[in-house]
Amino acid sequence: MIPNDEILQANLNFDAKIIDLIDNGEWNWPANWVQKYPFIQTIPKPNISDDCVDRAFRITNSGEKVNLSISKVWNDWNGSNVTVPWLKVIWFSHGTPKHSILWLAVLGRLTTQDRLLKWYPGKPVICPLCEIKDSDYILDKWNDTIEDCGQ
Predict the structure, then answer these.
(1) Domain-embedded: residue 63
(2) Are 99 and 144 in a shared domain?
(3) How many domains does the structure of the chain reveal?
(4) By residue range, what is the domain housing residue 113?
(5) What is the distance between the alpha carbons of residues 50 and 23, in angstroms, rounded to a whole number?
(6) Comparing C-alpha atoms, which of 54, 55, 53 is closest to residue 69?
(7) Are residue 131 and residue 92 in the same domain, yes or no?
(8) 8 A C-beta contact, residue 125 and residue 113
(9) Is residue 143 located within the same domain as residue 100?
């Protein structure tokens, strides 16, 4: 990319068009640009016609020439859109991530009994699987709880 100050030193402005660098169908690059940026000599000469509408094209990763659009650039950069089997569990038509139970679990925001105990200190904590009413059993020995409840 050619820096802005070099564009201005070449007596071009930022509104310059390609036609401003063409003379008799040939590129007319500033002399110091050819030495400093030799790649510009490899740019093919455009076929300029007054009766043609200008369009912007882009070459995709697969080598296809397509009309320039932000969505196509995004899809090209983003890679293939692989659909995972659990997609609809998390994302669904009227669901926002902040209300999804899985999203709340990832953020540690589920209203579990240990969190409810902070809000209601006098309320007994009960294991939902084996119905033992011991907060130490629930909070301090979670690994043992999983094993006991699984039996």
Answers:
(1) yes
(2) yes
(3) 3
(4) 87-150
(5) 15
(6) 55
(7) yes
(8) yes
(9) yes
pLDDT tens over the chain, length 151 residues: 778 888 888 888 888 888 888 888 888 898 888 888 888 888 888 877 778 777 788 888 888 888 888 888 887 877 666 777 777 766 666 766 666 666 666 676 666 766 777 777 777 767 666 666 655 555 555 555 455 555 4
pTM above 0.70, yes or no: no
Which H or E element spans position 143? helix 142-150
What is the C-alpha to C-alpha distance for residues 21 and 30, in angstroms, rounded to an integer? 9
126's tokens: 């009960």
Rounded Cα distance between 106 and 124, Å, is 26
CB 126 within 8 A of CB 132: yes
- Indicate if 138 and 118 belong to the same structural domain: yes
Q: How many residues does the structure list for the chain? A: 151
Distance CA 129, CA 144 (A): 13
How many distinct helices (H) and strands (E) make up the chain? 8, 4
**Residue 14 and residue 34 in one domain:** yes
In terms of domains, do 94 and 122 share one?
Answer: yes
DSSP state of 59: E
Q: How many CB atoms lie within 10 A of CB 70?
A: 7
Residue 47 lies in a domain: no
